[in-house]
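Reviewer comment 2.1 asked that we show a complete input and output for one of the modelled complexes. We chose the glycine case, as it is the one discussed in the main text.
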Amino acid sequence: MSYKITVNMNKKPIYDILIGSDLSGLKQALADLGYEGRRAAIVTDSNVEALHAESLKETLGDLFSELFVTSFPAGEESKNMDTVLAVTRSFLEHRMDRHDVVLALGGGVTGDLAGFCAAIYMRGIDVVQIPTTLLAMVDSSVGGKTGVDLDEYKNMLGAFKMPRLVYINCSFLNSLDGRQFYAGMAEVMKYGLIMDASFYEWIISHLYEIHERDAAVMEELIEHCCICKQRIVERDPTEQGDRALLNFGHTIGHAIEKHKNFSLLHGECVALGSVAAAFISYKKGKLSKDEYYEIRDMFVPFNLPISIEDIDAEEVLRLCHSDKKASGSGIRFVLLKRVGKACIDATLTDEDIMEGIKEIEYCEDNEL
Ligand code: GLY
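Response of the prediction step:
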């Protein structure tokens, strides 16, 4: 493997993140964790099953006494309790017990859902995250957030369930279409914007290699994001404080995702939400106008949207209030003080938030 990052909790190592460009280290890593002779379920969606399940099974060979695939229809619509019941029933049918392991193979939906199934089956069995999308590699596979949606509430049912291992095979990136790939870049930019100005500059100076999905550059980029995430989750594993900064762009982003019925990808909505949040930061006197424009325009080279047509701004605002991050004591909004530094603001009014939504609403006047 090219990189190994160890995530600690209370100064004790909890799991490793291994980053490379093939699957060759996975079998040994799983053997080292003591899974030889155990049962394993590969939980994946219908798209990823067709692309990668066979090669994963071949790689793992006879390590397990039984290795089976349980898949569900690809898409956010599957991220619910019905799918959790179907997946956990398959664990039961295969007589999985507390010593067995779930291998979550896929993007953000799969990692969240499979992790949640592992968290609740028999009060918790092990899960190994094997992300296949850029977004899952840099964000959702690390840090132990798992869960499913409840009605219009995204990720409302869930649990913190730390993986035993995160195994990142960057060559999976080559199977992503352009839209999926670039959607992950919204979360990559997030780390630069909220906590690491020099990483933000690094991204800008490696635009060409990122477009080319250059293996060495992508490994370095993913490693950097995982270190950022590691630093935050070690400090605040259950989001009592700083971890909320990772929600930059997500309050308005999630609202648009729901408003558009999941026709846009999560990362595309995060890009829109980030532009809106940067605009509000400017309006609140934290960023200069030039800084705002520079941030907004950096999403464009990654084919990410910075404005959106056909939205009902009032409805988007309503959905911001139905976001989990807003439940209870009002919206805790993440703003930027500058590139590389974010803060939480719990004092924004509906008018402030509406200004951000209006900024990204596409209309002739806002045309670039
Ligand atoms: N994706 C945000 C977090 O893990 O906290």
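The pocket of glycine is lined by residues 139-140, 143, 145, 243, 246 (CB under 6 Å). We note this here for comparison with the apo prediction described in Section 3.2.
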